[in-house]
């Protein structure tokens, strides 16, 4: 057996090991990025749930005769109830961390007197991790949504 036949195998093994290690490291970075996205979305959903619960709690203690007038609201349409508009401006856009939030509150009369079905929809933008071109980034915005319904009686 000649020594020339075994030359370079150690170097080749080291390069293959480095390649495997690099692929594993890239996989871990991908998992970390996905984990960060999931945690951010979870934080926004939790905040939206707390805000919606807060508004429904306000509605449940208010007079039933003014619920539809004071709480039906659409932040994109600009019209709606004064109580929800105040809540939207102070709590949702002012104090929350939701990026570019939009709220729509539908209040419908129920089957019996003084019952209402309330639907609260909160939407926010989730920026994607795409290219740095501003126009392309704006097109790639994803929306986070939270919707809940309650029966007030």
From TrEMBL:
Origin: domain of life: Bacteria
Transmembrane domains' residue ranges: 9-31
Sorted UniProt keywords: Membrane, Transmembrane, Transmembrane helix
Protein name: Type IV pilus modification protein PilV
């Amino acid at each position: 057996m000649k020594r020339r036949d075994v030359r370079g195998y150690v170097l080749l093994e080291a390069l293959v090991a480095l390649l495997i290690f690099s692929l594993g490291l890239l996989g871990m970075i991908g998992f970390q990025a996905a984990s960060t996205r999931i945690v951010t979305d979870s934080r926004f959903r939790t905040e939206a749930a707390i805000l919606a619960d807060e508004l429904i709690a306000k509605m449940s203690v208010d007079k039933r005769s003014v619920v539809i007038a004071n709480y039906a609201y659409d932040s994109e349409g600009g019209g709606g109830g004064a109580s929800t508009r105040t809540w939207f401006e102070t709590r949702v856009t002012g104090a929350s961390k939701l990026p570019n939030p939009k709220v729509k509150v539908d209040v419908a009369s129920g089957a019996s007197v003084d019952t209402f079905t309330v639907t609260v929809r909160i939407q926010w933008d989730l920026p994607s991790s795409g290219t740095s071109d501003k126009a392309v980034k704006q097109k790639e915005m994803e929306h986070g949504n939270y919707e809940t319904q309650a029966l007030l009686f």
